[in-house]
Design goal:
It is built from 2 helices and no strands. With 62 residues, it is mainly alpha-helical. The chain has one domain. It is elongated and about 60 Å long.
Length: 62
């Protein structure tokens, strides 16, 4: 029972120290993402579709 009390106290102290560390850090906000950057693909859709089709055929064949 004493070890449970020690663990609870330790968790409480860890949470309080984490909160106080975040307040003192003075973090700046993250920059806004570029518009349309989430939709750009480094490879074409045809390459991805062809790869998926080949994978599906390999799974069906085995």
């Amino acid at each position: 029972m004493a070890s449970l009390k020690a663990v609870v106290i330790l968790m409480f102290v860890a949470m309080i120290s984490a909160v106080s560390a975040q307040e003192k850090a003075g973090l700046s906000p993250a920059p806004s993402p570029h518009h349309g950057a989430g939709c750009s693909l480094p490879v074409s859709v045809a390459v991805v579709g062809f790869s998926l089709l080949l994978s599906l055929l390999a799974l069906v064949k085995n």
